[in-house]
Fold:
Amino acid sequence: MRTVRNTVDTGRTVVCTIHQPSIDIFDAFDELLLLKRGGEEIYVGPLGRHSSELIKYFEGIDGVNKIKDGYNPATWMLEVTSTAQEAALGVNFAELYKSSELHRKNKELIEELSKPFPGSKDLYFPRQYAQSFFGQCVACLWKQHWSYWRNPLYTAVRLLFTAFIAIMFGTIFWDLGSKRKKKQDVFNAMGSMYAAVLFLGVQNATSVQPVVAIERTVFYRERAAGMYYALPYAFGQVVIELPYLFIQTLIYGVIVYAMIGFDWSVTKFFWYLFFMYFTLLYFTFYGMMTVAVTPNHNIAAIVSSAFYALWNLFSGFIIPKTRIPVWWRWYYYICPISWTLYGLVASQFGDFQDELETNETVEHFIRSYFGFRHDFVGYVAIIIIGISVLFGFIFAFSIRAFNFQKR
Structure:
């Protein structure tokens, strides 16, 4: 209450709702609007020192008990204006207020203040929001920074989960990435990539949904107050994920790459981190997008889980592209996971000339069985970036276009 009082002393008006406050808190207020059950006014006016004006008004009504010395005026006020007291006194406090001198003065004051001064002009603002679009973006990003920083149950737990999965996969697929003598060796290495994409990707998408749902509720309230536009909020929500996902990618990539034994070349290591980063990115944006297009995160989880199953089926690992029927192959091309596996496998194994037990090279096997070409990795990278941008754009558009508030 000291903070509220200090705010009022700067010339601002503060409106508070209170329920049976203590004497000290009640004394901190200047005026009181008292409503009876049903929303009718029974007192609107100054409290006075130690609630003297309030006490004077109600004690002036015939039959109302006088307040005892040291008694809380707020408690006394509620007791003497209760429905039982109205019935006992045979009065209606709302009607008494409407016929009082205090009500007449309040009406006169309202009439006076509702008329503009001579020569005054209507308020004019050159734009709807006080800050520029860039200023709103910076403010929303800064707000999201503190929101994420103060939410370790989301940010820290996600990183710990990633480290655990990395160590688990590293021990399960230990040194399999360096073996290229059999077709099964290639399948094993690809299996580590496939499992990581599903484990981490789905975990990212599902864990971000309740976070975005809560943030969206705050956004609805702050947008209604005219604080900022929808797109700066979406910008802040999207951009704040980038550094956290980069750290997540580094934790997973460094641990797994070393333990599985993939080829230690700068180019291949870069491509591995690149495709893992943008895979985690589009999964996270996908989770955010499903929240933005649905009323709550529970429905979003149901909707998104259906697509996880389809993405898993058409990823190209269970059934490679070359063996998918032509009439279903179109879904392979729009499945995000298929492009992730394409980039990971082609960048790691697509240029190896080691011979397998069938006397064909690893490069030839990758191209003939999976349809992956090493010289197409750059285009795959562009597609992966495009998928992330697409999901982020749909999230921003949906936040702007859809409003699931029930009030």
In short: The mean pLDDT is 89.
